Protein 1
Amino acid sequence: MSSTARGGIARASERGSTRRRLYLALSVLAAVVLYAVIVGWLGGVDDRLTDFAGARQAPSGQWWFGTDSAGRSLFVRIAAALRTSLVVAACAAAVSTVIGVLIGAVSALAGGWVDRLVMRLADTANALPHLLLGIVIVALFRGNAVAVVLSIGLTHWVQVARIVRAESLSLREREYVSAAVLAGASRTHLLIAHLLPAVAPQALIAVVLLFPHAIWHESTLSFLGFGLPPHEPSLGTLLAEARTSLLLGGWWTLVFPAGSLVLTTVAVAVAGSSLRALLAPPKPTRMPR
């Protein structure tokens, strides 16, 4: 068997393994979303109902994930927290990607001093601590979900902008783009008709890859008390509530919310990396001498 054939078989096997990882990650993520949607919304259970007589009950047949310090079912509370955290993280990842795509495409299309100024702005934004900057933004509108989304979106656009800029610079040299320029196409037309559709796959991957960062960022802000208010269930607020219960032996108040957070973010991260690998152009094969 020739080296070219062996290389083709190896690439096909690698892509098959990548597809299996993608399907497994999507299956886990679908189960998490289904659990978050069904419990509470379709189950008709109010996650705010308290029962102090049943506070800090260990996991059992009645309470699958145990109860918190207010006697609320953690099985229901985690589902509600997942709904909140998933929506906030998805919106934040989308906002960050839109900002990064627009800045990267405009920077590459304008060129010159505009491109240099934008890149210096990106370097400055990348040098600032994201968490500290997010705390400053959220502190102005404390307890506001929109502020949490903006704090994440305004601090995570730099890498997307760099990727889109690099892709746009290579696209700007393509023959069909040069032909459009010679035909008198405006920069706005080039941006809408050529550059943005070309970087759309990169934008999709960016949304998926930014999602784990967004959900961890939201959880961190809420855990520190700068994100969502304590009565609003999110993975960060549940982890913050678990600090007191953990000292009293309520290990389940930490294990199940933290496990949900890790499971969700790992599933999304694996799905994103697998999707990027599948959408990447195949490597050129070396012709035998």
Protein 2
Amino acid sequence: MKQGAQDSAGTRAPGAGRGAVPRVPRQPQVADLRREQAAGEPRRDQEAPAAADLPRAGVRGEHTHGEPPVPHPRPLVRRSSVRGQILQALRTALVAGELKPGEVYSAPALGERFGVSATPVREAMQQLTLEGAVEVVPNRGFRVIERGDRELAELAEVRALLEVPVMLRLARRVPVERWDELRPLAEATVRAASSGCRATYAEADRAFHRAVLSLSGNDQLVQIAEDLHRRAQWPLVGGSARPARADLVADAAEHTALLDALVARDVDVVRALVAEHFAGAD
């Protein structure tokens, strides 16, 4: 009776028994693609393969016939590298005053200037937007943020609240030889200041402060302080893109004096120097 019921109903439905093969091919799904590459039909009690374990199938329904996996395209890596280079170039142009506060710059125009497409420029500008350096102007481009003396003073105050206590604590704990290792960085700020280039000095200045704070072992502190320091270096509205060389040299001299006080473990001098340094930070 059961056999007759099967004969009248036709062929057993696909999947009714282990190892059964469908008569009518279905549209290939994840399991089908896996079976085309496997040596045999997997048992039904085996776990279905994850999509991440399979080659990229392209458009849904496309027959791949066991084609090899497509490697990740290398241009993505190169584009990321280009974006990083453009971001650094834009930061330098910003500090140097080549990108003026209040002015609007389009990604295509900046891309032509740097010899790249608009895409990495736009991505770099989006990062500068997150950092607060520029703002998006719909259908036009990016406007450099206009900053005044009040914002600069606020940044200096926040930096002092973060860095001064750390430096005082480090002055009591860090061995003298570790401070001596920072001597080349302090001297680099003096050379950069002598060049009169604001962008060159800004880079050396951040490198010295970053090295000092890194001795705390607090990566989050270093990252936050670096961001605040970078923002404090952006030009002000109506300010000169090239400050007097004497001002840069005086600021760099405070680095060497601070390092001398740290080597001598003179906490009182360290406190006075860092207070003066942040009071005149620009």
